[in-house]
Design goal:
The protein has eleven helices and twelve strands. With 311 residues, the chain is α/β, with parallel strands linked by helices. Helix 1 links the parallel strand 1 and strand 2. Helix 6 packs across helix 10. The longest helix has 24 residues. It is globular, with a radius of gyration of 19 Å. The structure holds 1,4,5,6-tetrahydronicotinamide adenine dinucleotide. The site of 1,4,5,6-tetrahydronicotinamide adenine dinucleotide has 34 residues, from helix 1 and helix 4.
């Protein structure tokens, strides 16, 4: 049986464990600094396995030693946004937490593939890669599956077409400058920009960009967790089943799209070795300009990180 450890047993971490257990993909470990909470949630979840008929073990712990031998480490530890905050406002608070999670887990699972969720997402993935000195195949940020799923859900609501027919690609950084592509995104092969009137499409693009903030404002404390955790479960499955599935992910660029030394959202092929390949789309000049603007924002956050942590 494969093993997945999730650092941070809060809303996103625990819900990730839930989706993963349902898929019977791996034995699970939930780690958190709060004593008793990961143990309690894990025990509760474990006791639901007989009901849904899944044979997986679920362990809650405060000790990184219990994560030993993990195939995948998922990092969701750290503060979520409050209303009015941007993801970048979380940088200094979360850099320490993610740094510790990354280095402590690597000691016990030297071969693990990392999937990072903590915000600011692209920069926390960058921190994990640099601190742990890993090849880029082994560190992937989760943002694109979520942002694209939000857009898919809005398109389905607008058109009444099944979500299964709707493919969307939201690329770029996981911030307000993210880039929902309206030509590559399609309904059963028809580009979205040909299917929907321009005003409707623009409204969907704008709502997608602010999709996380919309939920933060409604919840008032905490941020989204069902869709983010479903996204990371899909990525984990693609890796463990060696599916070579192409999903939008935050990946370390080495020249792709003209970008280097930055984590940025692009379609990437996921399989047993992690991030196997970055797919390069042909972008029209408008899209390329949005891409560059988003990359500049992510670079700024990477630079701010370098002032806080020696990497
Ligand atoms: O798509 C995405 N990338 C995201 C990212 C979608 C959803 C949530 N996203 C980010 O994940 C969010 O902005 C936060 O930065 C993290 C965690 O969000 P979540 O909603 O799960 O926050 P919670 O419920 O507050 O849980 C965080 C847990 C909490 O239980 C803390 O006790 C724990 O993290 N925590 C730690 N665990 C281990 N080790 C350390 N040092 C630690 N510090 C806090």
């Amino acid at each position: 049986m494969n093993k997945i450890s999730i650092v941070g047993a809060g809303m996103t971490g625990a819900t990730t464990a839930h989706w993963l257990a349902e898929r019977e993909l791996a034995n699970l470990v939930l780690v958190d600094v709060v004593e008793g909470m990961p143990q309690g949630k894990s025990l509760d979840m474990l006791q639901s396995m007989p009901v849904i008929g899944r044979d997986v073990s679920i362990l809650g712990t405060n000790d990184y030693a219990d994560t030993a031998g993990s195939d995948i480490i998922i990092i969701t530890a750290g503060l979520p946004r409050k209303p009015g905050m941007s993801r970048d406002d979380l940088l200094s608070a979360n850099a320490d937490v993610v740094g510790k999670a990354a280095t402590e887990t690597l000691k016990h699972s030297p071969d693990a593939i990392y999937v990072v969720l903590t915000n600011p997402l692209d920069t926390m993935a960058y921190l994990t890669l640099k601190l742990n000195k890993l090849p880029r195949e082994r560190v992937i940020g989760q943002a694109g599956v979520l942002d694209s799923a939000r857009m898919r859900a809005f398109v389905a609501q607008e058109t009444g077409v099944s979500v299964e027919n709707i493919q969307c690609y939201v690329l770029g950084g996981h911030g307000d400058e993210m880039v929902p592509l309206t030509h590559h995104s399609n309904i059963a092969g028809i580009p979205l920009r040909d299917y929907l009137p321009a005003d409707k499409l623009e409204a969907i693009v704008n709502r997608t960009r602010k999709g996380g903030g919309e939920i933060v404002n409604l919840l008032k404390s905490g941020s989204a967790y069902y869709a983010p955790s479903a996204a990371v479960a899909q990525m984990s499955e693609a890796i463990l089943k060696d599916k070579h599935l192409i999903l939008p992910c935050s990946v370390y660029m080495q020249g792709e799209y003209g970008l280097s030394d930055i984590f940025f959202g692009a379609p990437a092929m996921l399989g047993r070795s992690g991030m196997e390949k970055i797919i390069e789309y042909k972008l029209d000049p408008d899209e390329k300009a949005l891409f560059d603007k988003s990359a500049a924002a992510v670079k700024d956050t990477h630079e701010a990180l370098k002032k806080l942590v020696k990497i």
